Amino acid sequence: MLGVDEAGRGPLAGPVAVAVVAVPEGFDVKKEFPGVADSKKLSATKREALFQMLQRHAAAGTVHFSVEFESAVTIDTDGIAAAVERAVARGVHALAPDATSARVQLDGALRAPANYAQETITHGDATVPLISLASIAAKVTRDRLMNELSKTYPLYGFERHKGYGTKAHYAALHKHGLCALHRRSFIHLD
Description:
By secondary structure, this protein is an alpha/beta fold. It has one domain (2-186): Nucleotidyltransferase, domain 5 (2-Layer Sandwich), CATH 3.30.420. 45% of the residues lie in helices and 16% in strands. It has 8 helices and 5 strands, in the order E-E-H-H-E-H-H-E-E-H-H-H-H. A 5-stranded mixed sheet has the order 3-2-1-4-5, sandwiched between helices. Strand 1 (2-7) and strand 2 (16-22) form a beta hairpin. Helix 2 (44-60) packs across helix 6 (129-152) and helix 3 crosses helix 4 (80-95). It is globular.
């Protein structure tokens, strides 16, 4: 069974991240990951703790996961939907190369490649623990990347807002212009 979710669809800067988490049939995500929930409903501390649990399970071989990124350039060139679709396909193929033996649960409007048995669940990140775990993996991994990128681009405050369109981010854009991480198709400065 695979769970899929993304993080970073709406920011003005940085990549979009898609996480795929694979567990064996019968694996009890809620029992193994106490407090698992939609990443947007958890504190950064709780997300980190759950992500560290996920890493431990992955190291033990009981769970597998993949986080795939698509860059701001790709998002600008091909659109966010196509970028997310490619990242989903890469992640699903990485963890389940044989489509005949995999079932995929996806959040919202996400779709796996057509040859996979799949179910898209509206608000799946809030209602299906496996998708919640994928949402946490995507969010934590993307946030960590934005923290690292803030060292290369210190004028924008990515470590605080992760590329989202906050007042501080818009103020930095007005003062410094765009950097290589910005999604030009998402930004309209007046």
